Each structure stands twice: as C-alpha cells, then as structure tokens.
Amino acid sequence: MHTTKSVTKPVHNSLRKCRKECGLKQTDVARILELRSAAIISRWEQGVSLPSIRNAIRLAVLYQTMMDAFFMDLRWSTKRELKRRR
After folding, report:
1. What is the pTM of this model?
2. Can you say whether residue 34 is alpha, beta or left, with left for phi > 0 and alpha for psi between -120 and 50 degrees?
3. Per-residue model confidence as pLDDT tens digits over 48-60
4. What average pLDDT does range 3-15 have in this prediction?
5. How confident is the model at residue 26 (pLDDT cuts 50, 70, 90)?
6. Helix (H) or strand (E) segment spanning residue 85
7. CA-based nearest residue to 44, from 31, 65, 30
8. What are the extents of the domains in the chain?
9. In 3D, which of 15, 18, 41, 46 has the Cα closest to residue 28?
10. Is 11 exposed, middle or buried (0-12, 13-18, 19+ CB in 10 A)?
11. Is 31:66 a contact under the CB 8 Å cutoff?
C-alpha cells in the first residue's frame, strides 16, 4: 500500500522541553514507551508527527504533566478559532 505524504506545518510543542526537564534522552523515552526507535520521539518533538492519544497520555505520565501542556500554542489557537466560529 502506497501512501502519499502531505506537507503540513510542524505543530509547535513542548515535548522536548518536558523531556529535558525530566533528565531523559530520546533513547530513554523510546525504551520506556517500548517504541521501535528514538527517531519517533524526535519526529514528535519537531512537530513533524504527533503521538497517538495513548502515547500522549503515556508521555504525560512519564513527564508528570498534563497532556495539553505539550501543545499550549495549539490549544490557544484552537480555542480562539472555535470561539470566533460561535
């Protein structure tokens, strides 16, 4: 099955900051979450791709924070957009 890549703007997030505050390396997080590679963590931190809901919850537990703390800019812009549409 062939999938086409869509070019989207990276989603700004604080995943890297949260990881660093916990003193973890990308390889540590990948190992703890039992992911295939630390490259997955890198893509999430760059905003190239997003973690699934399950993995976002797991990251929040690991980093001892709330999930929406990772994506505050997205949360606020979405809130403004939905408020404008009402």
Report:
1. 0.82
2. left
3. 999 999 999 999 9
4. 74
5. very high
6. helix 72-85
7. 30
8. 15-85
9. 41
10. middle
11. no
* CATH superfamily, domain at 15-85: lambda repressor-like DNA-binding domains (1.10.260.40)
The encoded tokens of residue 20 equal 């660093």
SS3 track for 31-74: HHCCCCCHHHHHHHHHCCCCCCHHHHHHHHHHHCCCHHHHHHHH
**Does residue 40 register a pLDDT over 80?**
yes
What number of other Cβ atoms are within 10 A of residue 49's Cβ? Answer: 13
Which amino acid does the sequence have at 47?
G
3-class DSSP state of 23:
coil
Structure tokens at 21: 């505050």
Q: Kindly indicate the confidence band of residue 8, based on its pLDDT and cuts at 50, 70 and 90.
A: confident
Query: Can you read off the two tokens belonging to residue 69?
Result: 């703390």
- The number of beta carbons lying within 10 Å of the beta carbon of residue 10 is 11
